[in-house]
Amino acid sequence: MKIKLIAVGHKMPQWVEQAFHTYAQRLPKDCQLELIEIAAAKRSKNQLANKWCEQEGELILKAIAASDWVVALDVNGASWTTEKLAKEIENWQGKGCNIALLVGGPDGLSQACLKRAQQSWSLSALTFPHPLARVVLAEAIYRAWSITVNHPYHRE
Q1: pLDDT-derived band of residue 143, with 50, 70 and 90 as boundaries?
Q2: 40-59 exposure pattern, b = at least 16 Cβ within 10 A, e = fewer
Q3: What are the backbone dihedrals phi and psi of residue 70, each rounded to the nearest 5 degrees, phi first?
Q4: What pLDDT score was predicted for residue 90?
Q5: Most buried by CB count within 10 Å: which residue of 10, 60, 89, 107?
Q6: Phi, psi angle pair for 101, to nearest 5°
Q7: pLDDT tens digits for 30-41?
Q8: Domains, the chain
Q9: Given a cut of 70, is residue 94 above it in pLDDT?
């Protein structure tokens, strides 16, 4: 199984790339974590936020394969514990398909992206900067995977 983190934004600080890749590289081949960066829409005074969100959403949808199981990261999504995420990873592995985790831009995910998602997950009721959210996601996935294989990382 491959977990694709499809996220709006690029040119992240080095610490973000380093932290993300640290956790992604720890995962085994049967649970790979891949980052797909989507360029943010160019913002101007003449357009509304929903227009930017729609433009980003179109690019996100192009990065999703028809067979992917899609999970939208959304403030209105379900709140999962680490143990719940571990169970979700086991469920996803049982589906035999790749997973696409969607992270929108500053204005969130488009309605089309939310409609395409089979699940909606909220990392927190707090708002995280997008660079930090990538790191939190990578660590959370690694920690949850460690539970599924009884790896000592979760108990450290």
Answers
A1: very high
A2: bbeeeeeeeeeebbbbbbeb
A3: -105, 130
A4: 96
A5: 60
A6: -95, 125
A7: 999 999 999 988
A8: 2-155 (3.40.1280.10)
A9: yes
Let me know if 11 is exposed, middle or buried by CB neighbors in 10 A (0-12, 13-18, 19+): exposed
If one counts every other C-beta atom within 10 angstroms of the C-beta of residue 24, the result is: 17
Contact criterion met (CB below 8 Å) for 145 and 99: no
User: Across-strand partners of 108?
Assistant: 105
Q: In the chain, where does DSSP find H-type helix?
A: 14-26, 49-62, 82-95, 111-116, 130-148
Burial of 136 (C-beta count, 10 Å sphere; 0-12/13-18/19+): middle
pLDDT of the residue at 45: 72
